[in-house]
Sequence to fold (430 residues):
Amino acid sequence: MRWRATSCNGPTRCWRRAGRGRRAETWPRAPVGRRAVPGPSAGPRPLVVRWRRAASGPSPPEGRASSPRAFPWHGPSTRNGIQEKQEHMRVTHEAPLAPMTTLGLGGPAAVLFELFDPADFPEFVALADASPGRPVSLGEGSNVVVSDAGCAGAVLRMSTKGVRMTGRTDEGRVLVEVQAGHLLGDLVDTTVAEGLTGMEMLVGIPGTTGATPIQNVGAYGQETADCLVEVTAWDWELGRMVTLDAAACGLGHRTSMFKHSRRWTLLTLVFALRRSELSAPVTYRTVAAALDVPVGSRVPLGEVGQAVLAVRRSKGMVLGCSGTDDRSVGSVFLSPEISPAQADGLRARNAPVNRFPDGSTRVSASWLIRQAGFELSTPIVTGVRVSSLHYTLVADEGATAAGFTRAIELVQQEVLRRTGVRLTSELDFL
Fold:
C-alpha cells in the first residue's frame, strides 16, 4: 500500500536571510498530487494534508516492496485521516552552516532545506533537482567538517521526528521504527524508559538516528549493526524509494555503503530490541569500574546509562560537558586495523590491541597519538589543538575548516613516522 497527498491549504512558505531580518518567499508546490483548497477567511492557517490510498507511485526495487510507513509518516498526530503538520519545510539561501555543526566551522550552503514533516519529502526531491549535484544530508552536524567555501549544492537538514513500536520478530524482539531526523539521544532515552535493551550503551552520542547506520555508530560494546533490521531511503540514482535490510547496508567498523556516498537519503529506520530490565553485559573495564561490578555483569538499564555518561564526560565526549573543549566531533580518528605482525609488536609495547565485531584486529587511536608525542592541549595549528581531556582534536577561536583538515594530516604523518601505523579520519568532509 502506498499513500500520497490529495489536498493541502496553500503553498509552502520559505525564508531567506535579508540583512538582519528575514523575508518570506513563496515556492510553488511540486507536482506530487497536491492541490490548494480554501481555508479560513483570516489569519495564518496550519497546513493540513488528507491522505488516500494511491494506485500508482514510485516503483519499489525488484524483489522488495517499498515501506508504506516511511513515505509519509503516520504519527500519533493523525486524527480521523487528517494529519496536522507542525511546521512547513524551510528553504534558506546562503544559509550559514557553521552554527549547525559541533565544530562551528565552514561556509554557507547555496540553499538549505530543513525538513520537519516526511510528507514534504517529495517536494524536496522536486526542488533539489534544480540544484547542482546530489544533495548533502547534514543532520546535527556532529561528525562533519564543512569547507570554508561552503556547499554549492543543496543541503538537507533532516529534522523529522517520531518513534513507534510496530510489532515483534519471530525471536520476540520488539521492532522500533524511527524517523531519520529523530535525535539518537532521545531514542536511547525512549528505549531505556520502555525497558528495551540493545542501545543503552549509545547514550551521550550526539547526532540523528539516520546517521547511525552511515558509520555503524557504536560504543562500549554495542553498535548499530547489532540491532538494525532495515532502512528506507530515497535512491537518487534510481529516482525512487528503496527498502534495504541490514545485510544490504554493508555495515563494518564505523562504515557502511552509505559512507562517503550521496546516492541515498535515509528516511526511516527499524531496530529490533529485547525487552529486559537489565542491560547487555558490561564488557568495558572503565564502565564496569564506574558501576563497581565485574566485567560481564548485567545491571539495570538506567544505571548502565549513567555509568556510560560518566565515562564519556571524563573524556570530554559529551557535548557541553567541559566548557573548554565543546567545539568537537568526538573521535576524529578510527582505531586502525593492523596486521598480525603489527599486533604482536604493539602488544610488546603494552598497546591496547583488541578484536572487533567485524573480525578485524585494531589498536587504539588515542594510544597511537600519545605515542607520537602529542600531549593533552597540544596546539597543532592556529585554532586547533589536542583536547585537554582526550586524545582527539578540538577547535578554538581562529580555527578554520582548512586548518582543522591540516591538523588531521599533521597528526596522521607524525603517528605514521613514530609508530608505523596509519591513522584514518572517520569524519565526513563537505
The radius of gyration is 23 Å. The longest helix spans residues 401-419.
